[in-house]
UniProtKB/TrEMBL annotation:
The protein's name: Endonuclease V
Primary localization: cytoplasm
PANTHER family: ENDONUCLEASE V
Gene3D superfamilies: archaeoglobus fulgidus dsm 4304 superfamily (3.30.2170.10)
Organism: Candidatus Undinarchaeum marinum
Length: 219
């Protein structure tokens, strides 16, 4: 994993690495036929401190029942500066560290971006490729590209390429910008997010986010 998370890096070299790593991504379904566990990760960083909240949920085959199996919260220090679009080198490392102490879920949702990224290598790609696990990016903001309706679907288009899908589960729910990280197709990523969202965000991310909020209040 070390080549994915160097201790020191410049903006230029980080940009080049992202472009290089992108070439190794698998943006098609390479995950278990029957998904039984889904992880959710949210993170917060300020200065050198990074806080990561992780939850792993068990789901039934109809995505109608969710059971929290494990939760964890870690805090790390990073030598990498906090720079927009390069979070994979910073928060990504902390997320990868937190996952290694768990049984790897069938799919991992990460609050952030995937191939809907200026160099098509967001944090979900970074974590997914470094650990060789299926990852899905879910965010509430459109980092790059624009939303278009194609064949009846609201998709994210960047440089004439579809890089994600916009999921909105009800008239009052917020838009979720969904994109593959690694080993998941755009269609399946959106489908999993849609099936696991009961309210404003997918259940694995909701549980992880609530834990992050609780921990932050205790500080």
């Amino acid at each position: 994993m070390s080549k994915f998370f160097p201790d020191k890096i410049t903006i230029l070299s980080a940009s080049e690495l992202q472009k290089k790593f992108h070439e190794d991504l698998i943006i098609e379904d390479d995950l278990p036929i029957k998904i039984e566990t889904i992880g959710g990760v949210t993170s917060y960083s300020r200065g050198k401190i990074i806080k990561v909240s992780l939850a792993i949920l068990k789901v039934d085959e109809n995505y109608s029942k969710f059971e929290v199996l494990k939760q964890d919260f870690i805090e790390e220090q990073s030598k990498i500066p906090d720079l927009p679009t390069f979070g994979g080198f910073r928060e990504g490392r902390a997320i990868a560290d937190s996952i290694t102490s768990f049984d790897i879920p069938d799919v991992l949702m990460i609050k952030g971006h995937g191939i809907n990224h200026p160099r098509k290598f967001g944090i979900a790609c970074h974590v997914g490729l470094s650990m060789n696990i299926p990852t899905i990016a879910v965010s509430s903001d459109l980092l790059c590209g624009e939303m278009k309706t194609i064949d009846g679907k609201n998709v994210i288009v960047d440089e004439e390429e579809i890089v994600g899908e916009v999921v909105k589960t009800s008239a009052t729910s917020p838009r979720l910008y969904v994109s593959p990280g690694h080993r998941v197709s755009i269609r399946t990523a959106a489908e999993i997010v849609r099936k696991t969202t009961l309210e404003k965000m997918p259940e694995p991310l909701r549980v992880a986010n609530e834990q992050l909020i609780q921990k932050m209040r205790q500080i």
